[in-house]
């Protein structure tokens, strides 16, 4: 019978079935994170009312400005602001003209009164009259008084007509000059309309106290001032409002720090205290949380959607591997829990770097960076103050420090071979975070103490994250069977119990594994795979042969071949079983899962050809009985170990008859595995296979280099 042609068996349904668990895990994580953000955004609410007894002490859950108290102080400051007036220089001219006109009218009244008296007393027109001695109440009656009132300003009374009539011309002039001078002096200083009555009283009292004028004459002057003078200081609305606004802005806001008591238990709640409690959203009659929750769900969904898009385009292992998905979800959930704890300490004390550092252990660097950004956004939602949810400036500040710190920490974490590297990564992340906080503090003109405190919180978050990662890493390695660089280095030690057994009980297999490891490491490095994983997995890929070392050719030293006495099918079963035995031994020794997978996949479902064709010579043989159980290699590293294993074994068996012969053997063996479909399920393309072949050839060339032949010592 000819060789059976095997087709690739990777239907779309199988792929989606393999993604069911990761997708369900991510959905559960989305629900958990969303609920955490929503619950965290709901403040504690109690029954409060102004004027009632407070049943429990209320403290500020965050820094907050007491708007009611601040507004009260601002109103008080605005009320204390004096009106601002602008001087109108034209007013004095109007007042002076009015006074001159009034005195002209008064002079006309005085003259008319004199003429009336002359007629009354039948005196000559040029008679010299002592006006002060005339009984003007007798003279100026009836029609005479009416005529004089018509000559006088409208506000002049009959009593004031008598006073005017009693004035001499000189006295009238003196009164005019004294009055105008006093009014001019005051208006040069500036007066308002409200000051006019006060000015009139001042003028009256001044004239009387001077002794030159009678009380009636001074009263006449007061009447003129009240009716003619007006303020030359005009109320400036804009300037006054600006002064009030400046006074309000100078008021220092009444601020409550986080943890400060607003009202103590047993106190009566004031209106201002109740307003602040309501401002914090702590009352039971607050508005609905639906808008805030809607925004939270949408933003969380957008973040997870971007993460799914990245997983589908850049790193499908996030969707294809249930173990990777589980690790990612647990680290994210742990980060959320830590965020809730840290929030009670200080929003700047942030352990967001811990999930990112631990994620970098088993994720590719690019994916680890994306994972760090994802965690930074999620944790920013969680850390948001309940009053602002996402858009608070403090949260945006924390988001920036988290992203930059995470990027710096992951970029520093390169080889990941020593625990100290994780502490260094955390320290660098904390330093980057501290610099961000320092920049914000400087922009806000914060005090030196506040700057140092902000930097301290940033550094502390990074350093604690690094230290915790060292402590948590062994737990993750054990629980999730992670092939971390430090774990792989530990397993690569010749003192490892399993390698010791291999070295002693199956020395041929041990040396084969060492050479296979050299080939696999070089090949993995050439195609961008995990070179350390490929090397260490190669050390252990044939540990299943420890069940019966002598049944394998490389260990049959100084003894015959036991398979000569066995049926080909039985021999094939023994050979094939070393894969199953290897997986069992790997489980027993708790090797990382990725190494167990490579042990299980390093032969794929290939054919044990030697025994199959031997069985066919003896009669009919079922090909299925002579094939390894699989699965085929699923990763680059598993495919590389398969190729390194078969190439090393074949070339060791056939010998290295020149470099060109080795190249031909390598190409032939790789081509055979490719055509048999063994590499169908792993991400190795034709270009990768060429690079792998070149890497293999380079290793064999180095292993079989020429040596100088030293002459024997002469006797």
TrEMBL record:
Transmembrane listed as a keyword: yes
InterPro entries: HD/PDEase_dom, HD_domain, HDIG_dom, Metal-dep_PHydrolase_7TM_extra, Metal-dep_PHydrolase_7TM_intra, PgpH_phosphodiesterase
Positions of the HD domain: 509-650
Name of the protein in question: HDIG domain-containing protein
Keywords noted in UniProt: Membrane, Transmembrane, Transmembrane helix
PROSITE patterns registered for this protein in UniProt: HD
Xref: SMART domains: HDc (SM00471)
Stretches that traverse the bilayer: 21-39, 293-313, 325-341, 347-363, 368-389, 395-413, 422-443, 455-476
Record has Transferase as a keyword: no
Organism: Guopingia tenuis
């Amino acid at each position: 019978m000819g060789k059976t042609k095997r087709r690739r068996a990777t239907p779309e349904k199988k792929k989606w079935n393999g993604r069911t668990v990761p997708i369900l895990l991510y959905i559960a994580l989305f629900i958990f994170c969303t609920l955490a953000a929503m619950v965290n955004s709901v403040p504690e609410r109690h029954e409060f009312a102004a004027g009632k007894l407070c049943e429990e002490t209320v403290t500020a859950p965050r820094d907050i400005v007491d708007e009611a108290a601040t507004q009260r102080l601002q109103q008080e400051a605005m009320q204390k602001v004096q009106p601002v007036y602008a001087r109108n220089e034209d007013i004095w001219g109007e007042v002076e003209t009015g006074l001159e006109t009034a005195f002209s009218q008064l002079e006309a009244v005085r003259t008319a009164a004199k003429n009336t008296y002359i007629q009354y007393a039948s005196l000559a027109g040029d008679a010299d009259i002592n006006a002060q001695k005339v009984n003007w109440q007798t003279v100026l009656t009836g029609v005479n008084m009416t005529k004089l009132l018509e000559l006088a300003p409208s506000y002049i009374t009959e009593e004031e007509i008598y006073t005017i009539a009693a004035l001499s011309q000189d006295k009238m002039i003196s009164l005019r000059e004294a009055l105008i001078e006093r009014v001019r002096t005051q208006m040069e200083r500036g007066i308002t309309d409200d000051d006019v009555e006060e000015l009139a009283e001042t003028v009256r009292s001044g004239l009387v106290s001077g002794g030159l004028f009678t009380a009636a004459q001074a009263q006449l002057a007061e009447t003129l001032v009240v009716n003619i003078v007006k303020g030359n200081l005009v109320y400036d609305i804009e300037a006054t409002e600006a002064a009030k606004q400046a006074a309000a802005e100078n008021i220092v806001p009444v601020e409550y720090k986080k943890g400060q008591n607003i009202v103590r238990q047993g106190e009566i709640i004031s209106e201002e205290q109740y307003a602040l409690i309501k401002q914090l959203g702590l009352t039971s009659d607050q508005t609905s949380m639906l808008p805030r929750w809607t925004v939270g769900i949408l933003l969380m969904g957008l973040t997870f959607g971007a993460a799914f898009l990245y997983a589908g385009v850049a790193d499908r292992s996030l969707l294809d591997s249930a173990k990777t998905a589980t690790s990612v979800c647990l680290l994210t959930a742990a980060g959320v829990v830590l965020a809730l704890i840290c929030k009670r300490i200080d929003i700047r004390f942030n352990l967001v770097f811990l999930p990112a550092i631990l994620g970098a252990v088993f994720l590719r660097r690019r994916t680890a960076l994306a994972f760090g950004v994802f965690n930074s956004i999620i944790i920013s939602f969680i850390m948001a103050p309940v009053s602002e949810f996402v858009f608070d400036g403090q949260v945006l500040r924390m988001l920036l420090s988290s992203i930059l710190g995470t990027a710096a920490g992951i970029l520093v974490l390169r080889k990941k071979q020593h625990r100290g590297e994780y502490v260094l990564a955390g320290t660098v992340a904390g330093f980057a975070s501290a610099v961000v906080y320092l920049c914000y503090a400087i922009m806000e003109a914060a005090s030196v103490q506040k700057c140092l405190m902000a930097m301290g919180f940033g550094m502390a978050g990074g350093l604690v994250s690094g230290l915790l990662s060292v402590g948590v890493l062994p737990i993750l390695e054990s629980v999730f069977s992670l092939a971390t660089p430090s774990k792989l280095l530990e397993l690569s030690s010749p003192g490892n119990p399993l390698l010791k057994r291999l070295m002693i009980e199956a020395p041929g297999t041990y040396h084969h594994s060492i050479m296979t490891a050299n080939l696999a490491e070089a090949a993995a490095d050439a195609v961008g795979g995990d070179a350390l994983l490929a090397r260490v997995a190669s050390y252990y890929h044939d540990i299943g042969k420890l069940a019966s070392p002598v049944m394998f050719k490389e260990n049959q030293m100084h003894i015959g071949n036991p398979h000569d006495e066995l049926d080909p099918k039985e021999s094939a079963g023994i050979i094939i079983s070393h894969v199953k035995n290897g997986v069992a031994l790997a489980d027993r020794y708790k090797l990382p899962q990725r190494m167990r997978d490579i042990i299980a996949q390093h032969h794929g479902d290939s054919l044990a050809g030697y025994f199959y064709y031997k069985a066919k010579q003896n009669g009919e043989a079922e090909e299925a009985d002579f094939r390894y159980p699989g699965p085929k290699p699923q990763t680059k590293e598993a495919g590389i170990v398969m190729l390194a294993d078969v190439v090393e074994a074949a070339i060791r068996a056939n010998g290295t008859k020149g470099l060109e012969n080795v190249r031909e053997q390598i190409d032939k063996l790789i081509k055979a595995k490719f055509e048999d479909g063994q590499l169908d399920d792993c991400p190795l393309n034709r270009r990768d296979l060429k690079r792998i072949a070149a890497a293999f050839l380079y290793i064999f060339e180095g292993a079989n280099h020429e040596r100088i032949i030293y002459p024997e010592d002469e006797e």
